[in-house]
Write a structure and sequence with these properties.
- This protein is mostly helical and 77 residues long.
- It has one domain.
- Helix content is 74%, strand content 0%.
- The termini are far apart.
Length: 77
């Protein structure tokens, strides 16, 4: 398996299909999560998976939750 972010996201989406998630649900994950990840990697102009980038994204999301930008409903989604 390639370690670039696009291959990893494609593999995750394939796993979602295999466990029976609806196409609309997978598209929601694409819009709410995967697109943010891709945008962050585009800023780096490096598409190889890096754990520190994911940790930064998680920290940003937790800060947004703490500040009330992300609702509890969205966080638990």
């Amino acid at each position: 398996m390639n370690n670039d972010i696009f291959s990893l996201i494609d593999a995750a989406k394939e796993q979602m299909k295999q466990i029976g998630l609806a196409d609309a649900t997978i598209e929601t994950y694409q819009q709410r999560s995967f697109n943010q990840i891709i945008q962050r990697y585009q800023k780096e102009v490096d598409y190889q998976y890096r754990q520190e980038i994911i940790h930064e994204l998680l920290a940003d999301a937790e800060q947004q939750f703490s500040n009330g930008v992300i609702s509890r409903k969205s966080r638990n989604w």
